Amino acid sequence: MRIPLLSWLFLIHIFTISVSSQCLNEQKSLLLQLKNTLSFNPENSTILTNWTQTLDCCQWKGVTCDQNGRVTGLDLSSESISSGIDHSSALFSLSSLETLNLTYNSLNSSPIPSSIGDLANLRHLNLSNSGFSGQIPTGLSLLTRLVTLDLSTHNYLGNRSLKIEKPNLSALFGNHGGVVELYLDGVNISANGYEWVQAISSSMPNLRVLSLSNCYLSGPISDGIDNSSTLFSLRYLETLNLAYNRLNSSLIPSNIGDLTNLRYLNLSNSGFSGQIPIGLSLLTRLVTLDLSTLYFPRVPTLQIENPNLITLLGLGFGMGAGFVVGPLVFWKQGSRWCDEQIEKFVSVIGPTLCVIFGWCGGVKVETESTIEEHETGDSDEGEDGEEMEEEALPGRYCVFCSKLDIHRKKALHGLNCGCHGSPPISSPSTSSSSSSS
C-alpha cells in the first residue's frame, strides 16, 4: 500500500516533535542534583516531589524545555524550600535558563549566590519573598538580557533584608537597558536624593513598571534643571510606586505630568508635602492614584478626566473616607468633598464592602458641632475663612471613628474616639441628637 506524500510529511513532523520534546539526560541529572541539595517539606511540595527518574524531565511540573530538550524555565515558587542555595549548586549549570522563579520560599536568610551571573540567558528572574538576604551580588550585573526583575519582599526583615550598597545601583544595573519591569520593594537601598534616581533612569530607559516602596530612599527626586536623567524621562512608565520612603519635605515635582502613560501611581506615606502640582491633571490614563497619609495643606482645583479612576486620598485632604471611586476632583470648598458618583458608591457599595480607612495618628479631628459651624458660617474666620475655604479643605477627620453623613456629604466624628489622648468634645446638641437616633 502506498502512503501519500502529505501523510509521510505529517508522520515525520509528529516524530520530530516527540523526539525533540525529550529532555537531555544531562539536564535531568542537573535537576535531580538540585532537588537532592534542597531541603523542603514533601507534604507541602507539589513540584519537587514529582521529579523522578522514570519520567521525562520536560514533563515535570515547574519545568519548561525548548525544542532541543534543554531546560529554559524553572518555577519552584511556594515549594517550602528552607535551605540556602550554594554558589556551586547545579542550578547555575542550567545555562539555557530564561525564566527562574523562586518566590515565596524560606531560603534561610542566605545571600543570593554570585553564581547567578552564570545564567547569562535569563530574561525573567523572580526572587521575591524567597528568603534571600544581604548584599545583592555583582553577578546580577552580568544578566544583560533581563526583561523583568523582581527582588521585592513584603515582609519586614530588618537587618536580614536584601540591600544594595557595594556595589551600588549604578554598578548593578548599568547593563540592564532591556529591563521593562523592576520590583525592589523592601530592598534596603538607602541611596540619597538624586543618586538612585539617576542610576535607574539612565540605566533602564524602557521601564514600564518601577516599584520601590519601603526602600529607605530619600529625596529630592528631581533637581529641577536636567530632566534627561530623572524619573520623568521614563516616558514608557505605566506603574510608579514610591510608597513608604523618606522623601521628607519634598514637593511632588510639577513635571510628573510628563509621565503621560502612567496608570498606577502610589506616593502614599512617602513624605511628600506642600502643593499638589497641576501636572497631575495631565495623567489622563491613571486608574489608581494613592496619595494617602500625605499632608497637603492647600489643594488646587484639579481634575483628571478618567471615569475609571480609583483614588486613595487619605487624611491629608481632610476627607473621611480612605478611598474614593469616580473622576478625581480636588474641590475648592471643603463642604463639597463628595460628588454624586462618590455618594452613590458610598451609599450602595460602601455598606456591602465596608469602607477601608487609613491611619489617623497625629491628625486633627472635627465633631458634628464644628462641622455645623462651617455650614452656618458661625466661625470667627469671617471673610478670611471663606477665602481659605476656596483653596484648602477645612477639617480633618479621624476615619476610624467617623461616620459618613451622605445627606450633608460630611464625615462626622464619633463621640467615643479612642485614637487620641482624649476624645474630642462635642456639643450637648450633638450628644442628644445621637442618643435620639
TrEMBL record:
User: What membrane topology does the annotation report for this chain?
Assistant: Single-pass type I membrane protein
The record's keywords, sorted A to Z, are: Glycoprotein, Leucine-rich repeat, Membrane, Repeat, Signal, Transmembrane, Transmembrane helix
Matching entries from Pfam families are given as: LRR_1, LRRNT_2
Tell me the first and last residues of the signal peptide. Answer: 1-21
Cell location: Membrane
Indicate where this protein is primarily found.
Answer: membrane
Which InterPro entries does the protein's record reference? Leu-rich_rpt, LRR_dom_sf, LRR_N_plant-typ, RLP23-like
Keyword Transmembrane helix among record annotations? yes
Domain Leucine-rich repeat-containing N-terminal plant-type: residue ranges = 24-66
> What sections of the protein cross the membrane?
309-331
GO cellular component entries: membrane
Protein name (record):
Leucine-rich repeat-containing N-terminal plant-type domain-containing protein
Whose protein is this, by species? Rhododendron griersonianum
**What is the phylogenetic placement of the source species in the record?**
Eukaryota, Viridiplantae, Streptophyta, Embryophyta, Tracheophyta
